[in-house]
Amino acid sequence: MIKLLKMMRDNQDRILTDWLNSLKTAARRRDLIGDVEVREHARKILTLISNPPPNTVLEDFSSEGWQTVRDQLMEISISRVAHGSSPSETAQFLLSLKPVMFQLIREQLTTAPDELFHEIDVTNNFVDAMALHIAESYIQSRDKVIARQQEEMLELSTPVVMLWDGIVALPVIGTLDSSRAQMVMESLLQAIVQTNSRFAIIDITGVPTVDTLVAQHLLKTITAARLMGAECILSGIRPQIAQTIVHLGITLNDVVTRSKLSDAFRLALERSGRTVVQKAGHAPVVAPVAGVS
């Protein structure tokens, strides 16, 4: 084992060159990751493998002595995920080291067949362990990226817009599941506080179906908004959704509803003491009602 590590240190430049040549013949998308970065990754890995802490053996890749190698593999996997490489391409990066090492071992241990087979077996298992580790790290890194993107998309899918002073609207588009309903509620309540709005319009024109669960989510959001001092108006109730609500026996008696967002906006303006008037030759303007602030 010590002989193998010394062999790697003494031939580090040659191993690196042969490894990079092996990578050139392997299937790799050079438009995703450049040769310079691949060379730097290979150099770092090779340096760390060749110079482990004392008493570190190749037979146990999970030992503390190989922690720096595992950390470096994690860093490489993050880079590969960012570049869009596949898990197999990422693992192939390490597996390409095998034939290089096998060739070196054969040349150095030609006269000692037992030792040759042993070192090849150890090297084979060690490289496999590294490849498995970088594949697992790749999946973990990709899962984190996907989770972050889903969270960002969720935030973008629940925008709260300010229609007028004291009137906010939250257009909901797509399926409203439990996690998204929680995001809808948080976004709306936060907007009510930030804008000091007295009226909040939840528009479900873009919600394909409304079942009992979706209705419960909406009622909870409306109740929470009321507790914040805002009056909620539910708009965008299409005929099909109205029939579904009736068939399911969902009660919306305490909820002000309108079929269109424009109707809900007009109602909010009226209840806030404003009215829409149209001057001759001009577009409609909103004017405050006398005696109402």
What would you report as the Rg, rounded to the nearest angstrom?
Answer: 32 Å
In total, how many beta strands? 7
| Helicity, as a percent range | 55-70%
- Give the rounded overall mean pLDDT: 85
Shape: elongated
Terminal Cα span: 85 Å
Strand order of the largest sheet: 1-2-3-4-5
Strand content: 5-15%
Tell me the series of helices and strands, N- to C-terminal.
HHHHHHHEEHEHEHEHEE
Low-confidence stretches: none
CATH architecture of the largest domain: Orthogonal Bundle
The domain count comes to 2
Largest sheet: 5 strands, mixed
- Structural class by helix and strand composition: alpha/beta
Query: Could you say what the CATH topology of the largest domain is called?
Result: Globin-like
Number of helical segments with 4 or more residues: 11
Name of the top-level CATH class of the largest domain? Mainly Alpha
Keywords: Phosphoprotein
InterPro entries: Bact_StressResp_Reg, RsbRD_N_dom, STAS_dom, STAS_dom_sf
Protein name: STAS domain-containing protein
Domain STAS: 157-268
Plain-language structure description:
There is one protein chain. This protein has 11 helices and 7 strands. It has 2 domains: 1-144, Globin-like (Orthogonal Bundle), CATH 1.10.490.70; 161-272, 2-Layer Sandwich (Transcription Regulator spoIIAA). Helix 1 runs antiparallel to helix 3, helix 2 crosses helix 6 (97-108) and helix 4 packs across helix 7 (113-156). It has helices spanning 2-10, 12-25, 35-50, 67-83, 87-95, 97-108, 113-156, 178-195, 212-227, 239-248, 261-271, and strands spanning 161-164, 167-173, 199-206, 231-235, 256-258, 274-278, 284-288. Helices cover 60% and strands 13% of the residues. It is elongated and about 100 Å long. The protein is of the alpha/beta class and 293 residues long.
